[in-house]
Amino acid sequence: MQNAMVELWHADGKGVYDNEGYRMRGHQFTDKLGRFIFQTGVPGDYPGRTRHFHVTLIAAGYRSLTTQLYFPGFHNNARDFGYREDLELSIAEIDGTQTGRFDFVI
Q1: Closest CA to 60 of 103, 104, 4, 7
Q2: What is the pTM of this model?
């Protein structure tokens, strides 16, 4: 879907959120094929939670969706109350850069 807004936010590498500014937060609009790309760091875990990204999708004519995306194989996944295996990113190395992928269907 073209022109859907995808918002992403997460903790920094130490598991700390910037609650006063805009570090580790951003948004993109999907292209004509519904694709989007974020270039960011890997969030740290913090007490009670495993590392994850928060994501909100907003598209005209649809209810917004807010969810979380998780990292596969991370040792704290099983202890996190919100973790779901079906919300894991697919991780691959592309041109020397660790890349995560998740396909949303709306």
Answers
A1: 4
A2: 0.91
